[in-house]
Amino acid sequence: GRCGRRSEPAAMNGRTLDADDLARGVAHLDDETILRMLHDRYDEKAIYSSVNRMLIAINPYEDLGLYSAAMLETYAALGGESAPPPHAYAVASAAFKGLLAGGSQSIVITGESGAGKTETAKRMMQFLAHMAGAHVGERAGAEAHGAALDAKSPAALHHHLLRTNALMEAWGNARTTMNDNSSRFGKFLSVQYDSSAKLLGAQINTYLLEKTRVVQRGAGECSFHIFYMLLLGLPPSEAGQLELMPDVQSFRYARLVDADIDPAGRDGEGWAEQLAEVRGVLTDTIGIPAADVWSTLSLLAAVLHCGNIDFAVPAKGGTSAAAALHTGAMRPLKALARLLGVDAAELCDALTTRVIRAGAEWVTKPNTTAEACGLADALAKALYARLFDRIVASINGAVGLARPGAPTGGGLAHSFIGILDIFGFEHFGTNSLEQLLINYTNEQLQSLFNGIVFSAAQAEAELEGVSTAAFGEGEVDNREVLHLFSAERTGLIATLNEECIFPKASDETFVAKLKRANARNARLVDDSSNARADHKMAFTVRHFAGDVTYAAAGFLLKNKDPFSEDIAVLLRESSEPLVAALFAPPTVEKTSARRAGTFQRLVFKGVAPQFDAQLQRLHRVLGAGSVHFVRCVKPNGDKRPRAFDDERVLTQLRCGGVMEAVRVFAAGFPDRVPFDSVCARYAPLARMAAKPASADAAAALLGALGVGANQYALGHSKVFFKSGVVAQLERRREQLLAHNALKCQAAVRGM
Question: Residue 714: in which H helix or E strand, if any?
Answer without folding.
Answer: strand 712-714
